[in-house]
Amino acid sequence: MPYSAAFGDHFYCQTDGRLECGHVFLSGNGLPARWETDGLFRIGELGFGTGLNACETWRQWKLTRRPGGVLHFVSFELYPMSTNDLSRALSRWPEIEAEREMLTALWPPEPGGTIDLALDEATRLTVVCGDAFASVSATELAFDAWYLDGFAPSRNSAMWSAELMNAVFAKTVEGGTFATYAAAGFVRRNLIAAGFEVERRKGFAGKREMLCGVKPARSGA
């Protein structure tokens, strides 16, 4: 179970991080149902961590994508892991063995800057290393869905700040969504203040609540 000494928190739910990804991030963003159309779908993630969300999303994408569809998974990560650490963390789940092997084969020996990987002919992974607020603010990309997966708000409040939530909202397409395991009051307030319509849902593995939401269309649009 990988643990961050910098933030004093585990990288994912101790019950089962892969199943949590499906419950919170995929289902919370209406996936994979929203992949039933052609064209590009772009996911943004705050906190790449072990790459578990990317691998599980890629696994489900391969099972459900349509011809002509392209998935671009973009993650913003301050402290990228080494190849060995990624491999060790992901080895817990045989369901994503193929994805783990490909990710670790492509992962640079000294990760930093912008890591851009072609996982297959219809899947691209980009990991932007550095401060999340600066990186999200600087990107010219627009996102259809967000995985808000920083360390717990009580341990890493900067990852849930009003400024960063505003930046996430600005980079989201109209009708775009977010999902997060976090349900702290200040996180919900920051997301609402940024402009998202926010909904509470049942959390994973006994956690009472999680949050998801949508960027509404502009009036008259």
Offer a concise description of the structure.
This is tRNA U34 5-methylaminomethyl-2-thiouridine-forming methyltransferase MnmC. Helix content is 31%, strand content 28%. With 221 residues, it is of the alpha/beta class.
Range of helix content: 25-40%
Distance between the termini: 47 Å
Parts with pLDDT < 50 across at least 5 consecutive residues: none
| CATH third-level topology | Rossmann fold
Domains counted in the coordinates: how many? 1
Number of strands: 10
Shape: globular
Specify the biggest β-sheet. 8 strands, mixed
| Radius of gyration from CA coordinates | 16 Å
Strand content: 25-35%
What structural class do the secondary elements suggest?
alpha/beta
CATH superfamily: Vaccinia Virus protein VP39
Annotated CATH architecture: 3-Layer(aba) Sandwich
Assembly type of the chains comes to single chain
GO molecular function: oxidoreductase activity, acting on the CH-NH group of donors; tRNA (5-methylaminomethyl-2-thiouridylate)(34)-methyltransferase activity
InterPro entries: MnmC-like_methylTransf (IPR008471), SAM-dependent_MTases_sf (IPR029063), tRNA_MNMC2 (IPR047785)
Protein name: tRNA U34 5-methylaminomethyl-2-thiouridine-forming methyltransferase MnmC
Keywords: Methyltransferase, Transferase
